[in-house]
Automatic annotation (TrEMBL):
<keyword id="KW-0378">Hydrolase</keyword>
<keyword id="KW-0645">Protease</keyword>
<dbReference type="InterPro" id="IPR029058">
    <property type="entry name" value="AB_hydrolase_fold"/>
</dbReference>
<feature type="domain" description="Peptidase S9A N-terminal">
    <location>
        <begin position="31"/>
        <end position="432"/>
    </location>
</feature>
<feature type="domain" description="Peptidase S9 prolyl oligopeptidase catalytic">
    <location>
        <begin position="489"/>
        <end position="704"/>
    </location>
</feature>
<comment type="similarity">
    <text>Belongs to the peptidase S9A family.</text>
</comment>
<dbReference type="InterPro" id="IPR002470">
    <property type="entry name" value="Peptidase_S9A"/>
</dbReference>
<dbReference type="Pfam" id="PF00326">
    <property type="entry name" value="Peptidase_S9"/>
</dbReference>
<dbReference type="Pfam" id="PF02897">
    <property type="entry name" value="Peptidase_S9_N"/>
</dbReference>
<dbReference type="InterPro" id="IPR002471">
    <property type="entry name" value="Pept_S9_AS"/>
</dbReference>
<dbReference type="InterPro" id="IPR023302">
    <property type="entry name" value="Pept_S9A_N"/>
</dbReference>
<keyword id="KW-0720">Serine protease</keyword>
<dbReference type="InterPro" id="IPR001375">
    <property type="entry name" value="Peptidase_S9_cat"/>
</dbReference>
<dbReference type="InterPro" id="IPR051167">
    <property type="entry name" value="Prolyl_oligopep/macrocyclase"/>
</dbReference>
<protein>
    <recommendedName>
        <fullName>prolyl oligopeptidase</fullName>
        <ecNumber>3.4.21.26</ecNumber>
    </recommendedName>
</protein>
Length: 718
């Protein structure tokens, strides 16, 4: 059926208009979305799937549907009276020079730089700190529209060769291009059909990479489940590449990776079937005929080798250590029964790195960074003094280096690069961005709220200083809650524009994330996934109870697994928020595992095929299956990309179609489908700015604003 709702036409200049009168101004017709009688039987339960035809991303019918939905959506968005103002301010604030930490390869110092509004960062190099930099690689020239991006860059040991990977249209499929760094000429044919892979060089001879066979059917949605590790020797064809691991049924895994030790002696191979837990193997490349040796032969832990000194291996593991620790073992007998603790587990989660002959142990304490420096005997050298309370990262460098560069940021501090003397332990600012944003005008506060089952959950709330807690502040509650991912404080230019408008930005550290280690992660998976939604709902209720905002001024936002979070929360508590912003979300929990590498998410989700109990649990919260006829849902802007081959856009297509059909209220339900864009990585700056202008414009407009909030504030002050 075609749902008719109210939209935008003759706009008043009032700051907050009467919603009913505005909604009577015009009608917005959604495109017709046909229903097909598709039914699947799960353990005796018949589940209808009327929009399954939208899963065919290659059909003309799906393409026409996308065009029709975008026409309605963009017509609505362009008529928001202050949308262009938001885009202009986003562009203005975004337009500052951004520089990465430098890194040395061969005879050159390399760094990434964006002049301000360039679609992609450019790679520069110079021969010394004081030398004039030259352009080494400009991804802005990869394609005319800026949608082909640089997704990886790796150098041979002597720095004379480089392998860089590119993504076209946001896809996870990559090409690896091999370049002579002196001449900047392409050295040989590209390596094709690479996916979920880094590049790890063995000296100057060649490198390891991973890929799948190209699937039958659509490469953007067809299932991929046998990852294989190859070795490419320079000067040979890809067809001659040596298959190292993954070619047999015994070695079949969804994610396989290879990493060469800094001294080129060992190859370490990880093999996983899910995003958590994996096997670990090694090869001693110093031997004439190296064989694969098992370090861990089950998928019960997350373990990797961080470094070695000769035959002594240093491993990071969560085996019997949910918050992780470092252990040592001899390469001749590397199995767990021979491990010895090197840096023991603590009450905080460990994320270590190495630089200049030391270990730098970064800990999360309530999602805030603390860093300790250790020598290779396991002795504590010092606590590294950080610039403030926030997130520090990048404490890595080669063994011979005496300097490292790290970044520091929080919700009100743009990412600043610091130069750190490894032996002395002193830091100085290397690059501080010159951005038109006054950090001193804003504040972040960490609070703890109580979830449904009594669990204490932290949340950081950021806004302008002096904000009046009157329940009317536009608020974005952003969450993720899954896959052991930690949401730590970081600056966002887009969120800065939101806060300039008097907006509040709140980020809770939900269960399912990694902020408190494996136990926190496991408290939000499979049959405990509802804990994540309960945490998010409790965060919203805290913000309302404390008068930061109210349901009329609350938006919930999240992407990918966070899109699922938004979808589940708005179906369970549609009364709680005014606006819902699910991005590239996992919305069909009964079929997610049938697309691309989706089956690898089963550690977090379980699948509908596992057993009846798991099916029932997923069916009970799956966003697509829990939209109910006759319910008034919040104003919703679903966002996705037509080249997203990680969370395929069919999830968002089906959710939007169901929601448009079943929406009983007057709030709009729109889907914004970016063409030539994927899951998010590598998206051109112009595209990002336009998307944020649409998201913030949609949010504020549906909270009742017809001019920007700071314009009202200026008028009142005037």
């Amino acid at each position: 059926m075609r749902r008719i709702i109210t939209g935008i036409v003759g706009l008043s200049l009032l700051a907050g208009c009467n919603e009913n009168s505005r909604n009577e101004q015009t009608a917005l017709n959604y495109p017709e979305t046909k229903k097909v009688d598709t039914v699947t039987n799960y353990f005796g339960t018949e589940v209808k799937d009327p929009y399954r035809w939208l899963e065919d991303d290659r059909s003309e019918e799906t393409e026409n549907w996308v065009e029709a939905q975008n026409e309605v959506t963009f017509d609505y968005l362009k008529n928001i009276p202050f949308r262009k103002e938001l885009e202009n301010r986003l562009s203005e604030l975004w337009n500052y020079e951004k520089i990465s930490a430098p890194f040395k390869e061969g005879d050159y110092i390399y760094f990434y730089k964006n002049d301000g509004l360039q679609d992609q960062y450019v790679v520069y190099r110079k021969q010394s700190e004081d030398a004039e930099p030259e352009v080494f690689l400009d991804p802005n020239k990869f394609s005319e529209d800026g949608t082909t991006s640089l997704s990886g860059l790796s150098f041979s040991e002597n720095g004379k060769m480089a392998a860089y990977s590119i993504s076209e249209g946001g896809s996870d499929w990559r090409k690896i291009i091999i370049m002579d760094t002196e001449s900047k000429e392409i050295a040989e044919d590209s390596i094709r059909d690479v996916k979920f892979s880094g590049v790890s060089w063995k000296g100057d001879e060649g490198f390891y990479y991973s890929s799948y066979e190209k699937p039958e059917g659509s490469e953007l949605s067809a299932k991929t489940d046998q990852h294989r590790l190859f070795y490419h020797k320079l000067g040979t064809k890809q067809s001659e590449d040596n298959l190292i691991f993954g070619g047999t049924e015994d070695q079949k895994h969804r994610y396989v990776g290879g990493s060469v030790s800094e001294d080129n002696r060992f190859l370490f191979i990880s093999a996983r079937n899910a995003t958590s837990g994996g096997k670990l193997f090694m090869m001693d490349l110093s031997q004439d005929d190296p064989q694969i040796m098992t370090i861990i032969g089950n998928e019960d832990t997350d373990t990797y080798v961080i470094d070695n000194e000769g035959s002594k291996l240093f491993l990071v593991t969560n085996l019997d250590a949910p918050n992780r620790k470092i252990v040592t073992v001899d390469a001749a007998n590397p199995q767990p029964e021979n491990w010895e603790d090197f840096i023991p587990e603590t009450e905080n989660v460990l994320s270590p790195s190495t630089a200049g002959g030391y270990f730098f142990a970064e800990y999360m304490e309530d999602a805030i960074s603390k860093v300790k420096q250790y020598d290779y005997e396991g002795n504590l050298v010092r606590d590294v003094e950080l610039p403030g309370i926030g997130s520090a990262g990048g404490f890595g460098a080669k063994k011979e280096e005496d300097v490292l560069y790290y970044s520091f940021t929080n919700y009100v501090t743009p990412g600043t690069i610091y130069k750190h003397q490894i032996e002395e332990g002193t830091s100085e600012v290397y690059n501080k961005p010159k951005i038109d944003f006054n950090t001193e005008d804003y504040e972040s506060k960490q609070v703890f709220f109580t979830s449904e089952d009594g669990t204490k959950v932290p949340m950081i709330i950021t806004h302008k200083k002096g904000l009046e807690l009157n329940g009317k502040n536009p608020t974005i509650l952003y969450g993720y809650g899954g896959f052991n991912i930690s949401l730590t404080p970081s600056f966002s230019t887009a969120n800065a524009v939101w806060m300039e408008q008097g907006g509040i930005y709140a980020v809770p550290n939900l269960r399912g994330g990694g902020e408190y280690g494996k136990e926190w992660h496991d408290a939000g998976i499979k049959m405990k996934k509802q804990n994540v939604f309960d945490d998010f709902i409790a965060a919203a209720e805290y913000l309302i109870a404390e008068n930061y905002t109210s349901s009329d001024y609350l938006a919930i936002r999240g992407g990918s697994n966070g899109g699922l979070l938004v979808g589940a929360t708005m179906t369970q508590r549609p009364d709680l928020m005014k606006v819902a912003l699910p991005a590239v979300g996992v919305m069909d929990m009964l079929r997610y595992h049938t697309f691309t590498a989706g089956a690898g998410w089963a550690y977090d989700y379980g699948t509908a095929e596992d057993n009846k109990e798991m099916f029932d649990y997923l069916y009970n919260y799956s966003p697509v299956h829990n939209l109910e006829e006759g319910t008034a849902y919040p104003a919703t802007l679903v966002t996705t990309g037509d080249h997203d081959d990680r969370v395929v856009p069919a999830h968002s297509f089906k959710f939007a179609a169901e929601l448009q059909d079943k929406q009983a209220g007057n709030e709009p339900v729109l889907i914004r489908i970016e063409t030539k864009a994927g899951h998010g990585a590598g998206k051109p700056t112009k595209m990002i700015i336009e998307e944020y202008a649409d998201i913030f414009g949609f949010t504020l407009y549906n909270m009742g604003h017809e001019v920007l909030p700071n314009k009202v504030e200026e008028k009142v002050k005037g």
